[in-house]
Amino acid sequence: MYGLTGCIACLARFACIDTVLRKKFDDIWYYLPVGLTVSFCRVPDAARARQERLQIFPLWKGYSMHIALVYVGGAEALAMSLGERWVNLTRAHQDYERHVEGRETVPIRDIISLVNAGLFTRSFYRRMTEFVQRNDRLRDYLIPPDTRFLAPLRPGKIVAIGRNYRAHVAEFDNQMPTEPIFFAKAPSACIGPEEPIVVQEWHGRVDHEGELGVVIGKSARHVSMEHARDYIAGFTVVNDVTARDIQKKDIGAGNPWFRSKSIDTFCPLGPVVAMADALPWPVAVDIEVRVNGQVRQKSNTEKFIFSIPELIAAVSRFMTLDPGDLVATGTPAGVSPIHAGDIVEVTIPEIGTLKNPVVSGD
Length: 362
Known about the structure:
Radius of gyration: 24 Å
Structural class: alpha+beta
Largest sheet: 11 strands, mixed
Order of helices and strands: HEEEEEHHHHEEHEEEEEEEHHEEEHEEE
Shape: globular
Number of strands: 20
């Protein structure tokens, strides 16, 4: 180990004059093996170069790989989880590009842009977690604990799946589907955590429907089940709020139930998007819905009738899914009415809890 450490130290000293690297040595640690203690020479002022020792740890490991959209410093920004703390990812990425890569970039302020840039990945998360934790940088990027979290993304389209849990099919006395049933929700219905679900008298009965949401990572058309995972950027929590009386009326008349699903505020989502690697594959996660603390829905996605690969294959056969599109995978049994004054919480432990109050719009 001494020989390897010594070699790295020598390379570090040489880097002070190496015109190929063309970087402050302050940033050289990004390219050193994880887990080594190395001695290095700092620049930019080579005349005042000094020996320091830096312990390199795999600080990104064990973190949840969650990305959120927040309102901080008078603007929207991306935030990245570091355990219980949150870091301003928009600022950190811009500083990384400036100080490590030596280029100026436009700030990335939304998850879809991050996905389109090919940065919604484990390797990017690792680079950013290491960057903000070295040389006392962390305090520069931490966001205040009272920061407001927004809906993590505004999907281009929302494709929702109906009747994907056997117990849910039974509670409405419906026929078991032989292929996935999907419908659309309007993106304008999206709200974020802590934002109110607004109900009005003319809506009639309004139900909660907690679901796992799949965020698409790249353009998907005629995708096979075997390759479905390659098209997933991440996962979020969705509450497919439904105006049940309106839905039943439309179904009875032979009409689509788009309007009962698309009323403003009827698609809470968040609080974060967990990167695809944050969940097991095949996806088997618990989901629970509570109203005023009382459990109303409780199941696991392993009880899906149609798996996530089957859903992506089925939907992409009929339409192209674009980066940032959302597929809501269906709700388990236990849907029930919500009313003004209620607090609705949907929890998937690997992602978090989506919490929304219900208020009257009358």
